[in-house]
Amino acid sequence: MSLETTRQLKHDTPDHDRRLDGMAQGVLGTDMDRPEGRLKVSGRATYAAETHPEGMAHGYLVRAATIGRITGSNAEAIRAMPGVLHVLEDERMIRNAAQGMAGESPVQKQGQSWYVGQPVACVVAETFEQARHAAQAMMVTIEPDGTHVFDAEAEGVEVDTPEKKQVSQGDLDGAMAEAAFSVDHDYRTPSMSSAAMEPHASVAQWDDEGRVTLRGSYQLLRFNKNELADVLGVAPDKVRILSPYVGGGFGSKLGLAPEAVAAALSAQVLGRPVRVVLHRRQVFETVTRRSETKQRIRLSCDADGKLTGIGHENLVSQLPDEVFSEPVAQGTHFQYAAPNRVVGHNIARIRRSATGSVRAPGEAVGVTAFEIAVDELAKTAGIDPLEFRLRNVPEKHPENGKPFSSSTMEATLREGAARFGWQHSQPRQRREGEWWIGTGMAGAVRVNMMIEAHARVVLTGQGARVECDMTDIGTGSYAILTQVAAELLGFAPAQVETVLGDTDLPPASGSGGSFGAASTSTAVYLACMELRERLAAKIGVKETELTLKDGVATHDNRQTPLTEVLGDEEWRALGHLKPGKAGQEVRQATWGAVFAEVAVNDVTGETRVRRMEGTFAAGRILNLKTARSQCHGGMIWGIGLALTEALEHDPRDGHMVNRDLAEYHLPVNLDVPQLGVHFIEERDDWANPLQAKGIGELSICGSGAAVVNAIENACGVRVRRLPATLDQVMEGLIAQG
Amino acid sequence: MRAFDYIRAGDRAQAVRDGAGPETRFIAGGTNLLDLMKLEVMAPERIVDITRLELGGIEETADGGLRIGALVTNSDLAADARVRRGWPVLSRALLAGASGQLRNKATTGGNLLQRTRCYYFYDRGEPCNKREPGSGCAAMGGMNRILAILGTSEQCIATHPSDMAVAMRALDARVEVEGQDGTREIALDDFYCSPGDTPHIETVLAPGELITAVILPAPAGGRQIYRKVRDRSSYAFALVSVAAVVEVENGKIAKAQLAFGGLGPMPWRDRAVEEALVGEAPSPALFDRAADILLTEAKGHGGNDFKIPLTRRTLAAVLSQATEAAA
């Protein structure tokens, strides 16, 4: 092993060098297949629950059926049941998952049931069936501790209004009063689940040195490691987490969750590996959900359709003591300019399960409602909603005057409109039999973030290996990190191996908030640049004069194979990205526009999306195929948000009623039409040396609004309570007569 | 799931004998029973597997009808050329249900015996008179979007989830069953029980009685429509569905056989609705009158109130479609 050198970047300034544009391998930005794709589609990629260490026992979580103080249980009887090895009732069990990037134990305070469905015990048995049966037989005695509120809009609910999250500029009331046109409506989005395909699962195993290895399904391993260590009361170096493959996360696997804690504690007690897999119903009930929202949106404009006032006042819900709250207005702060502005953020403390980050926290629901309101104002003003948006493209951040790192709002709107063939029309103009046909559009916007990341690249004459604890939650991390290294070091992708999902490797960003690809790719970029410097030094040229392609260095009109340069040596370099002022001096964001055509049944109010076109700008696209897949996914989420998805909570105790995939209605194939996705090629120098930005969440932010706006254009019914289920649309149709 | 005894029946006599034991269930496709057993919503002590019995096949009967073996899968039944020709409403109803994978496993007999999809029936943490007689009905004051508006009782507002059975009821199907006392045929009209005070008793089947076939009378002719209204395009249970067999002669409705899904504790049929239609010229006013009759006793429970206007509108649209070209 040779010396490992480090290259660090504190990201304070834009990078105008755009070094990637000068590379020769030609693999970055292509639609390269995922290197691990074959393993996944042939069942050979081993997901957390599929590891079976010798002697593994099975744990199953026990849920609280009511709220209150836990006073006892029938654990003794449960222990006597066939196969039962252990009943875990440990004070360290957690009531809900840690919030993303917490890095410490989430709220514990066991001994108490905070919400119906909270995991309060874990039964471990020799077989899964024995554990499940015994867990279902377990009765935990809970003494009621008063009356609780289950609805954020109920009378007498406790509401936090954090001062830091309120904005007031100018005089919105005045602007509304003087406006040529204005709208003022309440919009509601429902409680939602990320519903990742792979249920949460953990297999924990302790070794003789008191070190625990957890095979889990997590997104942010370097944080999760510290969270688990904190819960268990051990040093972080006593914890190793492995998540090489994650079957969908969407925020639900950001923070360490109850099943991991139960597995680790049980395995410690029993001295043998323990697996805990959540039943689908437990996934819904115990995983953090997206908060329901009530959004009062006020908009005013002048006679030309120029916005003069923006108000976005929100109510979200959360359990007591949780710090996170759905940042509904995150996009509102900068999406449109208007001198008079109010942003309100209110958190109702209620006893539904904990809320947390779900794909595009903030914008997914905030931009959706806001873009419906913009559509309403454009209609009131008699202006084509596309034209209305074009008249309100902000030149700089409207609240703080900072420049945008890049502004592609107008370009995505124009390009999207052209690709869709947008033509503004009045509602109720097109009819095919029972079906009203209409079109709608919306802008999409999402903040861009970078977080600290490390990655190691090991170079030999034959190829390279990328190593870090980054996760691939289905997004394509394996592919893009391979491509970045292959491009910079001049190898075919097959010569680059990417090893992820192991906390014994350098701590990367993890996956979340669309920051994973750009952050960890930058760390890989830095490590590769370090290696390029070392190659150049050894060859005796300037790094900028070195061309690397197909394992050969070209310099001064000469070619030297890397096998010759390195011989038998193995060079290692560590890239380390630290976020800096570049994230604060400008507003970094990704932009898009979504257009939709829907059919609405005049009899039943059923809506079918017939066509959808998304145009997005997110800096350099690292892999066209995986980026497009991300946008497909986001647009389908938009359909779900607009039409089908809602977690229903019982009004009497807040428990989740429809907690399975039969009754929580994700869109099915037949709900999804052909989706058009187009990227506007862009280099955002402020973003990072790759000029790449996050793409995972952008497409959900606005897609739902395009569908809801299209419903109005089709049949004249405006839905302000999502999802736009057929009963709501039908009632609107009846009201129209 | 609780431990249970498993018996693979070698012949019908054995199946019927073993099936008559206490806490015993037959299993065929298992698409519903296994899920419910894993959740311990159902916890039979004994399972009698009937999949090795000779209960497959679709045969023509002497009077031009069909005898559908209890083990014929939903997929095979939907695809059968005779069914598609003579009883198309049945084929369409089958294809409107579940998913391709489920239809490949689910059987004709089992489909008739599907349990309700009421959220609270599935949730052992909640009272449910159907799951645990006498415990109460949580659906009444809770979430009841998908639940019944017709034929309910104070004890239960669950719906029967089948699409297939709705079409069969419109087609005057009969159920052939075999018990320890021999075989008998039960009209589908008489097969299901009203919930009343005993919502856990869903059919007239005696312990051990095994569905062996479903008999369809000769093709009903007319125009046949199955329309299912639901919360997404596929893989969702009916909020309202209508199976219609309607014939118009000389400008008047000569035949009307209508059954409804998503409305009641059983595939719903109301002869008074049909009587009001037959002999009349189709018109929006007539369809409205038919809906009035159908919905006279309809009772919403808050979350499912919308089913009442939805049923009215869907029925009118189906009747309009069934009668328009011929009128």
UniProtKB/TrEMBL annotation, chain A:
<dbReference type="InterPro" id="IPR000674">
    <property type="entry name" value="Ald_Oxase/Xan_DH_a/b"/>
</dbReference>
<dbReference type="Pfam" id="PF20256">
    <property type="entry name" value="MoCoBD_2"/>
</dbReference>
<dbReference type="InterPro" id="IPR037165">
    <property type="entry name" value="AldOxase/xan_DH_Mopterin-bd_sf"/>
</dbReference>
<protein>
    <submittedName>
        <fullName>Xanthine dehydrogenase family protein molybdopterin-binding subunit</fullName>
    </submittedName>
</protein>
<feature type="domain" description="Aldehyde oxidase/xanthine dehydrogenase a/b hammerhead">
    <location>
        <begin position="42"/>
        <end position="146"/>
    </location>
</feature>
<feature type="compositionally biased region" description="Basic and acidic residues">
    <location>
        <begin position="7"/>
        <end position="21"/>
    </location>
</feature>
<feature type="region of interest" description="Disordered">
    <location>
        <begin position="1"/>
        <end position="21"/>
    </location>
</feature>
<dbReference type="InterPro" id="IPR036856">
    <property type="entry name" value="Ald_Oxase/Xan_DH_a/b_sf"/>
</dbReference>
<dbReference type="InterPro" id="IPR008274">
    <property type="entry name" value="AldOxase/xan_DH_MoCoBD1"/>
</dbReference>
<dbReference type="GO" id="GO:0005506">
    <property type="term" value="F:iron ion binding"/>
</dbReference>
<dbReference type="GO" id="GO:0016491">
    <property type="term" value="F:oxidoreductase activity"/>
</dbReference>
<keyword id="KW-0560">Oxidoreductase</keyword>
<dbReference type="Pfam" id="PF02738">
    <property type="entry name" value="MoCoBD_1"/>
</dbReference>
<dbReference type="InterPro" id="IPR046867">
    <property type="entry name" value="AldOxase/xan_DH_MoCoBD2"/>
</dbReference>
<keyword id="KW-0500">Molybdenum</keyword>
<dbReference type="InterPro" id="IPR016208">
    <property type="entry name" value="Ald_Oxase/xanthine_DH-like"/>
</dbReference>
<dbReference type="Pfam" id="PF01315">
    <property type="entry name" value="Ald_Xan_dh_C"/>
</dbReference>
UniProtKB/TrEMBL annotation, chain B:
<protein>
    <submittedName>
        <fullName>Xanthine dehydrogenase family protein subunit M</fullName>
    </submittedName>
</protein>
<keyword id="KW-0274">FAD</keyword>
<keyword id="KW-0285">Flavoprotein</keyword>
<dbReference type="InterPro" id="IPR051312">
    <property type="entry name" value="Diverse_Substr_Oxidored"/>
</dbReference>
<dbReference type="Pfam" id="PF00941">
    <property type="entry name" value="FAD_binding_5"/>
</dbReference>
<dbReference type="InterPro" id="IPR016167">
    <property type="entry name" value="FAD-bd_PCMH_sub1"/>
</dbReference>
<dbReference type="GO" id="GO:0016491">
    <property type="term" value="F:oxidoreductase activity"/>
</dbReference>
<dbReference type="InterPro" id="IPR016166">
    <property type="entry name" value="FAD-bd_PCMH"/>
</dbReference>
<dbReference type="Pfam" id="PF03450">
    <property type="entry name" value="CO_deh_flav_C"/>
</dbReference>
<dbReference type="InterPro" id="IPR002346">
    <property type="entry name" value="Mopterin_DH_FAD-bd"/>
</dbReference>
<dbReference type="InterPro" id="IPR036318">
    <property type="entry name" value="FAD-bd_PCMH-like_sf"/>
</dbReference>
<feature type="domain" description="FAD-binding PCMH-type">
    <location>
        <begin position="1"/>
        <end position="221"/>
    </location>
</feature>
<dbReference type="InterPro" id="IPR016169">
    <property type="entry name" value="FAD-bd_PCMH_sub2"/>
</dbReference>
<dbReference type="GO" id="GO:0071949">
    <property type="term" value="F:FAD binding"/>
</dbReference>
<dbReference type="InterPro" id="IPR036683">
    <property type="entry name" value="CO_DH_flav_C_dom_sf"/>
</dbReference>
<dbReference type="InterPro" id="IPR005107">
    <property type="entry name" value="CO_DH_flav_C"/>
</dbReference>
